[in-house]
User: Fold Aspartate/glutamate racemase family protein from Piscinibacter terrae.
Amino acid sequence: MSTAAHGFLGVLGGMGPLATADFMSKLARNCTARCDQEHIPVLLYGDCTTPDRTASIVGHGPSPLPQLLSGIEFLNRAGVSAICIPCNSAHHWYAQMAQASAVPILHIAEASVSQVRVHNPKAQVVGVMSTLGTHSTGIYEQALRDRGFDVLSATPLQFETLVSPGIAHVKANEIDQAQAAFEQVALSLFDRGADVIILGCTEIPIGLQRECAAHPARYVDSTDALTLAAIDHFRRATAVR
Assistant:
């Protein structure tokens, strides 16, 4: 796939840095390229000083929107042809960012939901593991229910004692501790009837790498799904021209 003639993919990253690095790695691994020149050219804008998205959504911190819009403006001025944001919670401000962008912003939740039946064609019940902020926005619940899925989420106690601490462990590069917390939540969702779990926070796949590798049909990695959407976008652009 030759993509150089179709512009750069802009990545609005830094939320967090390890999740952005994971996105970049998966983008390269998923691209069916035979040499450097067949990969998707990427321009990364990584602002790790962006205020915490979940804290803002639940009313405990400043809005990240001004810095998100600064990143969108930078990438547009640089001439990218599409933008990915490997942070689920940042999509709470998707409408404002999309309005400010002259190029399409690929939506991570839409990309993830589209992968559910790729992983399990018979899936009816989908669990979602995410930040409390993303859960509060309802972006996954609405997208899944619109497609006829039943949805399960972590309990309030699990958010407080396992999910949020697990995400913090990943941000602190404490992957083993994160894994233990995330595996408990995943097991609980499967026990409650989930056929597939969407990992709707880009830190969570990092903590569940072992589980995802062992049982790929049971998990939709939102980071991976976003890379596939980006590759498909550039492939279609190549086909049109």
